[in-house]
Each structure stands twice: as C-alpha cells, then as structure tokens.
Amino acid sequence: MKRLFTMSLVALALVPVACGDDDSTDTTAAGGTQIAATATNFSFSPDLWTVAAGEEVSLTLTNAAGEDHEWVIMNAPIASEAEFTEAGVYWEMEATAGAVATDTFTAPAAGTYQIICALEGHFDSGMEGELVVTG
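Above: the chain sequence. Below: its structure as tokens.
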C-alpha cells in the first residue's frame, strides 16, 4: 500500500511536466508566474509573453550573446532609442554576457507593453518584444 501511494505521488508530480508546452504562456508556481527569455544579438526568444495583472512574475533571462542585454518593460511604446527615458520604464533587469539572471516584478495593469533592450544600439537593431497583461 505504501509503495502504491508513493507511485501515485510520483505520477501526480510528473503530470505538469508531461503536459507542458513550449510557447510563451507562463507557468504559475506557488510564488507566482514564471517566464523565461533568451537574449541574443539582437532579439528575444520568445518575443511574446502573457501574464495576469497584479501577479508576481519571476523572469529568467538567459543571455546567449557575447555582450550584455536588458529586458525592459516600457510604460508606453517608443519608436526609436532617441525617445527612450528612464522615466518611461516600468521595470528592467540586465544579464551580463553569457549569464543567466532571475528577478521578479509585479505585473502592471492589463494591456500590451513593449519589451526592449535599452542598451545603446540594441533596440534600434530590432531587439524588442511584447508583454500581454490580461485582466
């Protein structure tokens, strides 16, 4: 009986792994939502993430490039780096070249937010994505 109980627990623990997907839809953990991004020169993969408003979100940013990159949530979209100001930033984090960084933020109000790398030349080279925050 004890063995059957243990096997049942193991089977239940594996269900979320077996049913997972590989898109940007995020997994909800006990501490909130977990998302991931990989930064290369000059793009994010994936380039679209979805989270719920007010949710605590943990981002793991893998920098697969030979230079630093940022993952920045903008309060309002910009069209070029010339429009960038720190006042326009909702939240940001950086991963140094070849590193993996993890940090958390509280998802903003429902809406669609521009994600950019705000390091000089990166956004203008096309390094951007989109964060969809559902209500």
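The chain is about 15% helix and 45% strand.
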